[in-house]
Structures are given as structure tokens and as C-alpha cells.
Amino acid sequence: MKLGAHISTAGGLHTAFDRAIATGCDTMLIFTKSNRQWAAKPLTTAEIDQFHHAAETHPRIAPVAVHATYLINIASPKADLWEKSYLALKIEVERAAVLGIPLITFHPGSHVDSGEEAGLAQIGRALVRLLAETEQTAAQTTICLETMAGQGTNLGSKFEQLAQLIATAENHPRLGVCMDTCHIFAAGYDIRTPEAYAATIAEFDSVVGLDRLKFFHFNDSQHALGSNKDRHEHIGRGFIGEQGFANFVNDPRFAHHAAHLETPKEDDDQPTAEMDAVNLATLRKLVLSAE
Ligand code: ZN
Ligand code: MN
Ligand code: MN
What we know:
Layout lengths: L1 E5 L9 H8 L3 E4 L14 H13 L6 E4 L11 H20 L4 E4 L9 H18 L8 E5 L12 H10 L6 E6 H6 L7 H14 L5 E6 L1 E2 L10 E2 L8 H8 L8 E4 L13 H12 L5
Parallel strand pairs: 1-2, 1-10, 2-3, 3-4, 4-5, 5-6, 6-7, 7-10
Antiparallel strand pairs: 8-9
Helix pairs in contact: 3-4, 4-5, 8-9
The structure holds zinc ion and manganese (II) ion (2 copies).
The site of one manganese (II) ion has 4 residues, from loops.
């Protein structure tokens, strides 16, 4: 498995590669624009060239993946917010594509007060349009629905909802899933023991299909199984525990998949510790050497 983390792009998108190497990553997850703002200046030719150059000179960091802004809600029942979200997501997908990035994940969205089926219909409508409108501009970029914790009215916490969305988009080959370990655990899918893990992955395979699973977010959970709370914890220090991650990193089906930490950058007890490096070391320690 290729292990990495969510890496800062402060100082320019291309600077993330050196930061990822320094942290000990084999792969990285980035924002290509502020995750708390709707607007972004278009990428300049210089920024794009610098990014391509950095990717070529740091071949160890591959694949790169993008996380779209948290503001996007294509499940929204409000026409104006839906359109704004749709256009923001389309721009995110096209930015990833022009940077040569093969994977982007986004949160499917919250139905607010409109109900599960209405929310799924809104997401489905956006996906159909997005896949069509980016067919030329982002042909090499796979758009991934992230598995969610089921907090509030957010959708995507049940494998059946993801399968329904993929079916609505007619099983489009550019549609995938990013599995977040904290989120699925909070949603009620147990992964702590080899047996529970095997059952959860088998369920995902039968409902969605393992070929749709493109990459992972590796986060432990501050809350218990089925809590529906989306609170990330350092690897091995939450309710999932080390064995849960050992199940993933030793699964030969995922030997070539990427997994990114989205865990806190700091440790309350050790304010100076570089926690991405600590969490990566924990994950690597779990990889059985008898391969
Ligand atoms: Zn996410
Ligand atoms: Mn995530
Ligand atoms: Mn989360």
C-alpha cells in the first residue's frame, strides 16, 4: 500500500512535494484551493508548469489526490446553492485534471431537511452533468464519492447510497469511491478484527464493487462504532485501534492503493511532535514483513 497524508500547499501547490517527502510520504492528498472559500483564482500557466515539474522530479509521490472544498453540497434542495456547489465541484475536477492529478474526492452532501431520496436525486443529477461536462477536460481524473459518517443529514454513510448514486450515473467509469476508515466506522461498519473487516469489505464488494474503491483516508475515530460522529483520531489511539489498520495495510487486494492520513497535525501531549510522521510510522509498523 502507498501511505501518505494530507499535505499543506502553503507557498504554492508545487511546494507540497518536498513537504510530503520530508514527512515520509509515498503519496499525498492536497487542496488545490482554499477549502473554506468558494472562489479561487484560476491556475496560472506558471503554477501548472511548476506543479508538473515537481511531480516529475518527485516520482516517489504518486498518486497525488485532491480533496474538494467542504463547502460543496450537491445534495442541497436549494437551487442556488446546488448550482453554486455544482460549478465549484466542476472547477475542482478541472483543476485536478490540468495538474495531471488522477483522483479527486468530495463529500456527497447533506439533504438538510429534504429527505434521503430527494438528496440522492440531487447528487445524482449533479454527477450525470459533471461526468458529461468534464468528459473532454478531465478524462483522466476519477471522481470519488467519499464514504461519510452519517453525521446530521449527510449522505454517503451507507454503501447502498453510494451504489445508488453510481447506478444513477450509469456506472460511469470515471466514478469511484474514497473509503474513509473513521467515517465508515462511525457509520456502523466494523473493521476492528480480521473477521469484522472481512465482512465489511465483502459487503462493500457485493453492494458497490471493489473495483470502484480507488483510495483511502486513514483516520482513527474519537467515537465508538455507529456513533455517526466525524471526529478523527491518531492511528491506534481511537476506537478503531491498530488491528483495524493492520487489516487494511496487509490486504493484498489493496497492495497498490493509496491511503492518506487526515489526522490532527499536532498531539495535545507533545506539541512539537510531527504527528503525520508518527502516524505513518505506526502504519508501517503494522505491515507484516512476510510478503
Ligand atoms: Zn473528506
Ligand atoms: Mn476523509
Ligand atoms: Mn472526516
